[in-house]
Amino acid sequence: MDRSVPRAWSPAELDGVLGAWPTGSGPLYRRLAAALQGAVRTGELAPGDRLPAERALAAALGVSRATVVSAYDELRGAGAVISVRGSGTRVARLPGGALRPVDGRVRGGTASALVQRLVDGPAEVISLSVASEGAAPELREALAELMADGLDPLLAETGYHPGGLPELRAAVADRYTAGGLRTAPGQILVTTGATQALALVAQLYVRRGSAVVVETPSWPGCLDALLAAGARPRRVPLDEDGVGVAGFRAALPGAVLAHVTPTFHNPTGVLMSAARRERIGALAAREGVPVVEDLAYDTRLWDTPEPGPVAAHAPPGAEVLTIGSLAKSVWGGLRIGWLRGPSEVVERLARLKALADLGSPLLDQALAVRLLPRVDGLRAARAVVLRSRLSVLEDLLARELPQWTWQRPAGGGALWVRLPSGVDAAVFARVALRHGVELVPGAATDPSGAHDTHVRLPFTLPPPRLETLTSRLATAWSAFAP
Which domain holds residue 411? Predict the structure, then answer.
C-alpha cells in the first residue's frame, strides 16, 4: 500500500480502522471522535485523507447521522480535521509533511477488524471472531512429560530446524500414511500455525495480479493472506457439497493457485464428499493449477466418516499442498501447524520459512510430538462437549431470535446464521458491538455482497456464556429494529 499520498476512505474501510469504538463509556459521538482521533495519532489516518460523508458513515456504523456530525464537530474543534465545501472532511495537515507509516493492513482485505481485536486484547465484549476455547488438559500432561524426560536432549540441539524438528516431521508423515496417504518426512514442513503455512504458499506462488481460485464465502484471514501477496481472487460459490464444480472448472484457466477448505469449511461447516474431492483434484491437475487444501479447521461434531485429503484423491502428478494444525484439537496458543506436499516444493518453502524465522519454536514442536498420538481422542472428547453447546445455542436462538435461520453444520465450531432478507449484517454488527458482542458479518467473508445477510456464531462458549451472548444479541436486535 502506498502510504505517501492521501486517500479517500470508504465507510467500510474506516470501520475496519476504528475497531471496537462503541464500547466504553460516555456519549456515543465522543467515543467515535476519540477513535478517529486515535487513528490520526497513530498515523492510520494521515494528513490529507478524506473521511466519508456523514450520512454514508452513519449508515455503515449503524448510528444516527447526528452522531457522526457531532463526532466530526468534535474533531474540528480539536483541529484534527478540516471541512471545505465541495471537498468534504479531511484530516488536518501537520507541519513537516512526514510520510504515513505502514500499518499492516491489507488493501482490499476483510480481516482488519478481526486482527485488530487480537492486537487490542480482551475487552468487555463477547468476541466471536475466534471459534476456539482453552487448552486441552492433555497439554499439561505432555508438558510434564517433556520436562521430566525430554528436555535435556532438546536443549543439546542447536535450535535451528527451518523444516521442522525431525521427530515431528516423521510423526506427521506417519499420521498421513496411516490414514492412507503415503508420506515421507521430507514432504512435511512444520510452520508456526496454519496461517504461516498459507502465507508461505502465497509467497511462493503468487505475484502481483496473479489469479487465485478461492471459495466464497471464505475465512477473512485466509483471503487476506492471499491478497497480501498480490492475489486477484476468482471467487467460486459453495453448494451443499463444497466448492461448486462448474464454477471451479471455469475459474481455473490461467490461475496460479486454488485454495479450498474441504473438511468443515469455515464459516459454513460443509464437509466435502470424497467424490467432490476427487473431481476437484482431477480438474486442477488437468489445468496444471496447484491446490492448497486447508484442513486446519478440523473440529468434529458427529461420527460421520471424513474422507481423506484432496491429496489422497487427486491423480498422480497433481500438485496438492495440505495444511494442518493443532490449534483446534489442542490449543490455539500452541502455534504448531504443518504443510504436506511434494518434497521439492517443501524444500523451497523451507527456504522461505528460514528467511521468516529460522524455524518454529522447538519446545512447542517437542510438545506436538507427544500430543499427536492423542489427537483422535482429543477430537472425540471435544465433539461431545461441542454437540451439547450447539444444542444449547440452537434452543436459545429459537426462543430469543426466531427470525434467524441456519442449517446444522457437518462440523466446525460455529453456526452460519442468516438474518431476515434485506438486513445488512455488517450494520447490525456495529449495533451488536454497542451491546457487548463482536460479530463476524458475512461481508467479511465475501466482499461480493452475496452473504451480506449472514453472521457467524460460534458455539464454543460454555452454556452460561452462550445465554449471555444470546441475551445481548436479542437486545441489540430489538434496538436495531430492521
Answer: 126-134+380-480
